[in-house]
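Dear colleagues,

As part of the handover before I leave the project, I'm documenting each prediction I ran so the next person doesn't have to rerun anything. This entry is a single chain, and its sequence is reproduced below.
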Amino acid sequence: MAQTTEMKKRKFTKVFALLLAMVMVLALPVEASAAAKVTAVTKETKAKAVKKGKTVVTLPKATKKSSTYSYVKFKAPATKTYKITLGNLRKRGRSSASDILAAHSSLYKNGYYGLDRVTIKLNKKKTDVMYICSAYSWSISKSYTKKITANTFLPSRTASVKLKKGETLYIGMGNIERTKLCLDLTIK
């Protein structure tokens, strides 16, 4: 008789825990948001527009002769300083945790004769190129890197750019790999 009472208590506890878990799942809101996706193009005149927030950018693969440089553009909705972050470099499609990848990026504004590179400050040095790599590449190279400089490849890079309302910023990205790459572009 004691066993049956004990078994009933266990069964009741399991059912009660399951019901409680179901109530928690249904009662608490779950936010799911997907980042916008865009493919960068090789001509700045045909660059696709990105908005504030997170965007996944696909870079075309490099050819046998040279790397591929591609662009996306951002039109400033208001006059302020925007933070542009590039990171999470990975292969498009099947990606491995042990991928050794590298890319570089520059920011451009419309100038008198075309696009002019924007000078940014990275690690207290002025530069016009941001070097990024995959997380695995950084885990290998950080033991050899004595000092992080503006020319160091890092898994994430952030630059601040002052833009006027309606001004267009072109984000150029160079892919040296012979495969399509993706990276996360965040504009705040």
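The helical segments are 2-27, 135-141. The chain has one domain: 36-187.

All the best with the project,
I.
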